[in-house]
Amino acid sequence: MIDIIKKVPLFSQLNEEQLGALAQICTRRTFTRSTVLFSEKEVGSVFYMVLSGSVKIFTTSSSGEEKILSICKSGESFGELSLIDGKPRSASAQTLEDSVLLTLTGQNFLELLRTHFDITLGIMQELSSRLRDTNQQVFDLTFLDARTRVIKSLIKMANKHGLRNGNTITIKLVLNFDEISQLAGIQKVTLMQVIRDLEEKQILIISSSDFKIDLAKLR
């Protein structure tokens, strides 16, 4: 458990004693694909760390339309915001594939922040990073055309979760086209038009298990 927790950036600076204490208050849980971990507007009570698999963080409009805010994979954490401010969840979380997560109750999480400044600082840096991402998303939706937004979303996912070999980046495809269109902030029909164009130019190669982006042909 300690070796696993050490890989989570928020806790990488803890010593063995601190990691051991943290491991004692964490619970390892396995979730099947499409499990809703929590829903928007409900009271938050748990902090999550991803050991394996992936989780999408998303919001839902009054008409039922989803907007994916981020994808969390191994070594990433989520669910701390409502624990810190005491307000309802600002988004929902759902597994994209079978996933193993570490969970920490809200009470234990807040006690951790009170006793370890390094972790508190890490949380502040993470929240600042998310705010910058949100600002960038607003800019993209306002000023970028659909094709650029799709390419930027694919490259962002590939750079964050993919494997690069020369000019080619490969990433396991855990998102379907509906979810990619949500991430890029465009309609699915527009996404498919952009996808077809990228495939025809061999910039993008999609298989049943992954997709590849050829950076050389993207220029």
TrEMBL record:
Residues 10-130 form the Cyclic nucleotide-binding domain. InterPro entries: cNMP-bd_CS, cNMP-bd_dom, cNMP-bd_dom_sf, Env_Response_Regulators, RmlC-like_jellyroll, WH-like_DNA-bd_sf, WH_DNA-bd_sf. SMART domains: cNMP. It comes from the Bacteria. Keywords: Activator. The keyword Signal does not apply. PANTHER family: CRP FAMILY TRANSCRIPTIONAL REGULATORY PROTEIN (PTHR24567), HTH-TYPE TRANSCRIPTIONAL REGULATOR ARCR (PTHR24567:SF74). This is Crp/Fnr family transcriptional regulator.
